[in-house]
């Protein structure tokens, strides 16, 4: 066993509700705290001096500077496995060009598909690890990573192999998700439905046989797949035992309906979720994952996070880090900016990037600092935890622990 501390404050995020609004006075703040771990698990949390006296022979990992301890962050929606760069697209968007004009000039998602297809599995693994290293420095100890930029049977398998290889080498946990249903590829001659049928018949069995992932995603949108097409795909995925997440309601409503129908783990985006969609999500166990990075990258409205919380939803915040619509990739900055526009309490923001985000990945063993939970936590060099959101991402973690081991300082 090992005792780590002392910390000026430990913000456990324990005993907070999984759904709905959270007020600041509900946050547990433990002063002058310490944390005892055994292997990868939290054993005890309490006053550092008291714990050290109760365990006089315990190994101590001394914290020499003033630090605030929090659970490790969870980024439940990323696309950090990709080839190429789309800075040209972003410049054209700022210059007033439409999505169609950008695509016609050789940009858009198809440019990422073209570049991703050129990469070997090892190259994609290395790209993913490069991005994951940045996530780790930001205090993210678990991240979801989607495929979806190869859009062929062989290419999507290659992406998932790369993500799984990266997970083996990464210091943090990577959760792979199959997003072959990102859009119908330009070089597929059949219909949308026929492309989805190809994924169901050719890729689903490989996902299971090779243990590549048990998570399936689809982009339900007018520019991608209709609600009816999504209904077919998700029904097949559910019947085959896959966990489901959905790109929903980003530009038009409809996808979140499928999320509740198929009891998805999460419905992600939700920028165009209206009153009925919010109510429908609140009456379900679907996590409403909002992606402020996409709103910033596209210059569009934010997801109605305040309405979702007030209605009783479980709201998580993820970065959506991708080369096109959300290139920032800084979860803490995005969450802090969203808080100012949507009037989220600091407690709601922290919950949304820890234990509520973990729920979106169906992971109940992390996201809070409690006995029996995974020893994933991070510390910031400051005197008050509220400074973390106040500085809107400028304040970065000084220490990151994963499974009880210090991996970044």
From TrEMBL:
Keyword Metal-binding: yes
Pfam families linked to this entry: Amidohydro_1
Pathways per UniProt: Amino-acid degradation
One GO location term (cellular component): cytoplasm
Matches recorded under Gene3D superfamilies: Metal-dependent hydrolases (3.20.20.140), Urease, subunit C, domain 1 (2.30.40.10)
Enzyme Commission code: 3.5.2.7
Name the record gives this protein: Imidazolonepropionase
Phylogenetic classification of the source organism: Bacteria, Pseudomonadati, Bacteroidota, Flavobacteriia, Flavobacteriales
């Amino acid at each position: 066993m090992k005792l780590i501390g002392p910390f000026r404050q430990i913000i456990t995020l324990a005993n907070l509700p999984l759904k709905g609004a959270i007020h600041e006075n509900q946050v547990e703040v433990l002063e002058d705290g310490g944390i005892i771990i055994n292997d990868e698990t939290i054993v005890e949390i309490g006053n550092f001096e008291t714990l050290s006296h109760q365990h006089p022979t315990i190994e101590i990992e001394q914290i020499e500077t003033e630090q605030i301890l929090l659970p490790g962050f969870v980024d439940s929606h990323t696309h950090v496995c990709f080839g190429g760069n789309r800075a040209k697209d972003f410049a054209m968007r700022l210059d007033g060009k439409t999505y169609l004009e950008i695509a016609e000039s050789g940009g858009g998602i198809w440019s990422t598909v073209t570049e991703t297809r050129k990469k070997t599995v090892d190259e994609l693994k290395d790209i993913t690890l490069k991005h994951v290293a940045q996530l780790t420095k930001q205090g993210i100890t678990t991240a979801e990573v989607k495929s979806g930029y190869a859009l062929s049977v062989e290419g999507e398998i290659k992406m998932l192999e790369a993500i799984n290889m990266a997970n083996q080498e990464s210091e943090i946990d990577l959760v792979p998700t199959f997003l072959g249903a990102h859009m119908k590829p330009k070089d597929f001659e059949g219909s949308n439905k026929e492309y989805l049928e190809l994924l169901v018949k050719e890729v689903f069995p490989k996902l299971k046989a090779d243990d590549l992932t048990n998570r399936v995603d689809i982009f339900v949108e007018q520019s991608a797949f209709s609600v009816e097409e999504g209904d077919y795909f998700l029904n097949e995925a559910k019947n085959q035992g896959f966990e489901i997440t959905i790109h929903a309601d980003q530009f038009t409503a409809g996808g979140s309906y499928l999320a509740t129908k198929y009891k998805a783990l999460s419905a992600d985006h939700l920028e165009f979720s209206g009153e009925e969609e919010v109510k429908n999500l609140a009456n379900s166990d679907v996590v409403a994952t909002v992606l402020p990075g996409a709103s910033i990258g596209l210059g569009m409205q934010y997801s109605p996070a305040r309405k979702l919380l007030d209605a009783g939803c479980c709201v998580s915040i993820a970065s959506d880090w991708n080369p096109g619509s959300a290139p920032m990739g800084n979860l803490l900055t995005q969450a802090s900016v969203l808080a100012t526009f949507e009037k989220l309490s600091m407690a709601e923001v922290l919950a949304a990037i820890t234990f509520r985000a973990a729920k979106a990945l169906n992971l109940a063993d992390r996201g809070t600092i409690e006995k029996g939970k995974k020893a994933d936590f991070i510390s910031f060099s400051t005197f008050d935890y509220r400074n973390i959101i106040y500085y809107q991402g400028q304040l970065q973690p000084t220490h990151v622990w994963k499974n009880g081991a210090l991996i970044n300082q």
